[in-house]
Predict the structure.
Amino acid sequence: MTQDTLLARAPHPEEGTRWWRDAVIYQVYVRSFADSDGDGVGDLPGVRSRLPYLAGLGVDALWLTPFYVSPMADFGYDVADYRDVDPLFGTLADARGLIADAHAHGLRIIVDVVPNHTSDRHAWFRAALAAPPGSAERARYIFRDGRGPDGAEPPNDWESVFGGPAWTRVPDGQWYLHLFAPEQPDLDWENPEVRAEFADILKFWLDLGVDGFRVDVAHGMAKAPGLPDVGHPNQVEMLGTAVLPYFDQDAVHDIHRAWRRLLDSYDGERIAVAEAWAPTPRRLAHYTRPDELHQAFNFHYLTAPWDAAALREVIEESIRTAGEVGAPATWVLSNHDVKRHVTRYGGGAAGLRRARAAALLTLALPGSSYVYQGEELGLPEVLDLPEEFQRDPQRLRGEGAGRDGCRVPLPWEGEEPPFGFGAGPASWLPIPPDWRGLTVAAQSADPGSMLALYREALRLRRDHPALGDGGLRWEASPTGTLVFVRENGGRRLGCAVNTGGETVRIPARGTPLLASGTVRLEGGHLDLPPDTALWWDVEEG
Ligand code: NOJ
Ligand code: MG
């Protein structure tokens, strides 16, 4: 702890002005970060106790996943009260304390807001169930009569992201829409009452001092008028590749513009980042037009394979399209909804090697980067979680493998599970015993560890004038490699990445700054082994 405190970063001289354009934002999945009360579930005091670690890591801001009152049907993405903290995670006083302490450590706080749907236990939905069809209570949600004899068929063919029909029938025969679990009824954003309520919720948290919002399902808040059929089965496979009548509708942008005006009425550059699955980088960029949200997660980068050509294409397209609207590009490798990238990139030693190289690639790109908790430890996906622990609604409804394997709690220290995650004997998902060597404590003692690599990369990113916001210049390089130069204030930083299977020789001159593996830079060239990346101070010549 003391070592981390010493490492706590000093504020950047230009901090406060458009800080978000090149911020590194660390995603805290609260449930799995640190548990203060020994119940096996991470909580806000747990996060608070680990702020020195996060400040020492060198990130700029934390994004906290939902900690609001919730029956946890989707682990907090089903909110029953947007203005209070679930007892599992602490109290409102804990939230205030966390915000204040984070600010004292130079860390900004972004909270999740879930506007597409509420929990089915939210007071509004309970009232809707108790009220008759056509009532004002029902009009906050999307209730419709069914089709077919007796209205026994759902109103249209929309499928839930978690599998099965996106409609559930209530006892009086009407159906309500839920793009996710049945416990997550969709709100009707055409209803002014819904808009007013969320403006008020945003103000509540802004007044409490948060620096911004991560907007859940930002692309889903508006549905096509008349709720037309999609006309295709297996709609889940079309996510992010086609415009569906319930996602990426133009009307969402009006809602976002109103939110931006609200954010801009506060001081201190409060931001919003869109969780939006759009079919192309260009459509994604619409979410970050100057009068809309500040950033949007780049899932095109996340889903790109570990292949230089594929990565280059998405990097170029992302920078170009974000640049066209004046927004920073963002870079995301993992989050709580996808398989961790060590595993996506092949797992084992190769996956880890690639993830190390990917860290240097990602943190050298212009714009803002997201780090998902545990990626700085090189955690893999846990693929063999015992059946009885797996509780993700996505898996329970039959879509894919489920997301529990990327949500396993962090290993902090010690020789045995739960590795200092909490004071109790267990964690809500078991931590594999072979994570002994991956704990924060173990990696802090090892200069060759993933954690050491992240700490040094983040330190350089903060100190090196060429990193962060700005442009990028590609250099010609052999197939299977990416080489680019970042330049600012007379300083040039080179980044070279080899995604191929052979060592390559690249013309380069200068001083190595940080490598993800063993490289040689001398005599005007760089020898770069497979799955390795290097940052160096470029000397022209
Ligand atoms: C996206 C969140 O990241 C995910 O965890 C959640 O299941 C859905 N939105 C629904 O809220
Ligand atoms: Mg706890």
